[in-house]
Design goal:
This protein has about 120 residues and is mainly beta. The protein contains 1 helix and 7 strands, in the order ββββαβββ.
Length: about 120
């Protein structure tokens, strides 16, 4: 299956590195009598993807998409599509890892939300 964001191919990752949760959108407030009133408008998807062992070129390509504020369909390897996904503000985490020959690889985590 394809793994894309707004038509841009994403590096493959292990299926355990893709977490999808559905977050309620709405609000709650206390009434004068103390009861809680909750207005649930809908639920939206939040997807957290982690890639390990990325090359600098792969890391730079992901970072360029993140920095551009790309909004588009996120197609996951299992065929699930999250429409109008956007990388969240502060949704980029990276760790630089060096192998025994002192070559860097990158572990990158991105968080997406359905808009």
């Amino acid at each position: 299956m394809s793994f894309t964001w707004d038509g841009n191919a994403l590096p493959n990752t292990m299926k355990d590195n893709i977490k999808v949760e559905f977050v309620p959108v709405g609000g709650g407030r206390r009434m004068l009598d103390g009861t809680l009133r909750v207005d649930l408008a809908t639920t939206k998807a939040r997807v957290v993807i982690t890639w390990g062992g990325l090359t600098k070129a792969q890391r730079d390509a992901l970072k360029a998409l993140f920095d551009a504020g790309t909004v588009g369909d996120l197609v996951l390897p299992d065929g699930q599509t999250i429409t109008n996904a956007i990388a969240t503000h502060n949704g980029w985490r990276e760790t630089q890892v060096y192998d025994v020959k002192n070559n860097p690889t990158y572990e990158v985590t991105m968080t997406f939300e359905e808009s």
